[in-house]
């Protein structure tokens, strides 16, 4: 299925293309048509599945289709509630991207910062409000937020709201929403209290579920190397050369990290290119083609950039850094060992990443074998972060007489 098949309007199709998405993810395939039909939705999905686009894209489209020019200040038509500031910011960014060519205004509000700027922009009028529950209630109580014209309500990560103790705040917000509205409810897990809450919010919903990834293909050989952070680049070069690896995909956590790794490898005579969100669509495509044609030996990518990339006969995947979301590990290593082919997934783990390794092993239900025989064994178990280094004690001032 393509995004065109989902009957999206041209400005949204253009935005999706601009993001570099080639195909909708399973949750998008299922959820977008349901939301476009005006139905309530119960989505069982976790972060990393593309759920933000699954709700933002059809809601943006419906907001455009049902738009009536406002008299006076724009009313808030869509409310997206999410548990954390980080998620709120991410959702805000997604809406900015998908709605780039639409005349809709959005605003993100969360606690822990002064309210002044948030209040100011609310007073200018916004169409879409992304909020964490505490700050939203606060501003509602001060009469800066009016939810009486809400047409679309999205509750994101409901189970985390429960874990973080926000459920009462959420209920207070819901009490202020108009009865007639379309509601979308997302949760990774469905404990009893969450099911009860969804029953209160949704009317005759359709359910979509994407099973969380937890099983790693049996055809993939996994191995972990413990190594100091600063030596990872050298270890990578060594492993690639030692094992004569001709084509590998290397995952880094950041765009900057991807550039740095590609640069080091190239300087040591191993052809490498980085692909990430800061590169243009053309640059990414060229890098990919060069890799597919075996002109480039190593492709270094961030998780996001690597999505939707399909490379056959990829034998090796490196986790230059371990992902902090364990599901990402499964996605990453799933790039190799496709269609029954054998694949090898090599992970570099420094002292600080041991906790991520633990989470990954819990998710995949196995202990990843350790390669101990290598040139850069981990020695620094307690690396001191530069910013945490203590200042040297000040010299005592000479006493004045
Ligand atoms: P989410 O589960 O909403 O947090 O999305 C996880 C990541 O997947 C985000 O960085 C999105 O930009 C990316 N993403 C969402 N939909 C797609 C898609 N159809 N193709 C490729 N990447 C996507």
What does this 3D model show about the protein?
This protein is α/β, with parallel strands linked by helices. It has 2 domains: 3-210, P-loop containing nucleotide triphosphate hydrolases (Rossmann fold); 220-364, P-loop containing nucleotide triphosphate hydrolases (Rossmann fold). It is 37% helix and 15% strand. It is built from 15 helices and 13 strands. The protein has helices at residues 10-18, 26-36, 51-65, 85-98, 116-124, 133-141, 158-163, 167-174, 192-201, 232-242, 255-267, 281-292, 303-306, 326-333, 354-364; strands spanning 41-44, 78-81, 106-109, 128-131, 152-155, 182-187, 206-209, 220-226, 248-251, 272-275, 298-301, 316-319, 343-349. The protein has a 7-stranded parallel beta sheet, sandwiched between helices. Helix 14 links the parallel strand 12 and strand 13. Helix 2 (26-36) packs parallel to helix 3 and helix 14 (326-333) crosses helix 15. Bound molecules: adenosine monophosphate. Adenosine monophosphate binds next to helix 3. Adenosine monophosphate (AMP) is lined by residues 21, 24-25, 28, 47-53, 304, 307-308.
Question: What's the order of the H and E elements?
Answer: HHEHEHEHEHEHHEHEEHEHEHEHEHEH
For the record, the CATH class of the largest domain is Alpha Beta
**Distance, first to last CA:** 85 Å
- Beta-strand content estimate: 5-15%
Strand segment tally? 13
DSSP helix count?
15
**Overall number of structural domains:** 2
Low-confidence region ranges? none
Strand order of the largest sheet: 3-4-2-5-6-1-7
Radius of gyration: 24 Å
Largest pleated sheet: 7 strands, parallel
By oligomeric state, this entry counts as single chain
Q: Cofactors and ligands present?
A: adenosine monophosphate
Helix percentage = 25-40%
Overall, the morphology is: globular
| Structural category | alpha/beta
What fold name stands as the CATH topology of the largest domain? Rossmann fold
Question: What's the CATH H-level homologous superfamily of the largest domain?
Answer: P-loop containing nucleotide triphosphate hydrolases
Q: How confident overall, as mean pLDDT?
A: 88
The name of the CATH architecture of the largest domain is 3-Layer(aba) Sandwich
């Amino acid at each position: 299925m393509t995004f065109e098949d989902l009957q999206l309007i041209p400005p949204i199709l253009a935005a999706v293309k601009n993001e570099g998405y080639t195909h909708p993810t399973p949750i998008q395939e299922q959820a977008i048509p349901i939301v476009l039909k005006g139905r309530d939705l119960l989505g069982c999905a976790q972060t990393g599945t593309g759920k933000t686009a699954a709700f933002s894209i059809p809601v943006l489209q419906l907001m455009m289709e049902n738009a009536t020019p406002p008299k006076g200040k724009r009313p808030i038509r869509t409310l997206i509630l999410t548990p954390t500031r980080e998620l709120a910011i991410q959702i805000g960014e997604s809406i900015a991207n998908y709605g780039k060519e639409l005349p809709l205004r959005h605003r993100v509000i969360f606690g822990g910062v002064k309210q002044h700027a948030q209040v100011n922009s609310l007073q200018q009028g916004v169409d879409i409000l992304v909020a964490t529950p505490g700050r939203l209630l606060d501003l509602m109580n001060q009469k800066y937020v009016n939810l009486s014209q809400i047409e679309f309500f999205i509750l994101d990560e409901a189970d985390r709201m429960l874990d973080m103790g926000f459920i009462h705040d959420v209920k207070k917000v819901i009490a202020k929403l108009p009865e007639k509205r379309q509601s979308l409810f997302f949760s990774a897990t469905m404990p009893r209290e969450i099911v009860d809450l969804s029953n209160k919010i949704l009317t005759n919903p359709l359910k979509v579920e994407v099973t969380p990834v937890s099983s790693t293909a049996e055809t993939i050989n996994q191995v972990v190397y413990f190594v100091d952070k600063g030596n990872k680049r050298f270890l990578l070069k060594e492993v690639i050369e030692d094992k004569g690896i001709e084509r590998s995909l290397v995952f880094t956590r950041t765009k900057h990290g991807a550039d740095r790794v590609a640069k080091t490898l190239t300087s040591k005579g191993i052809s490498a290119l980085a692909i990430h969100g800061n590169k243009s669509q053309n640059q990414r495509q060229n890098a990919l083609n060069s890799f597919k044609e075996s002109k480039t030996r190593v492709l270094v990518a961030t998780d996001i950039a690597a999505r939707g990339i399909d490379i056959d006969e990829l034998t090796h995947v490196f986790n230059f850094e371990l992902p902090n979301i364990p599901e990402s590990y499964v996605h990453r290593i799933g790039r190799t060992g496709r269609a029954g082919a054998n694949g090898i997934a090599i992970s570099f783990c420094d002292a600080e990443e041991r906790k991520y390794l633990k989470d990954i092993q819990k998710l995949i239900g196995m202990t990843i074998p350790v390669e101990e025989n290598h040139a850069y064994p981990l020695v620094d178990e307690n690396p001191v972060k530069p910013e945490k280094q203590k200042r040297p004690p000040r010299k005592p001032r000479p006493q004045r007489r």
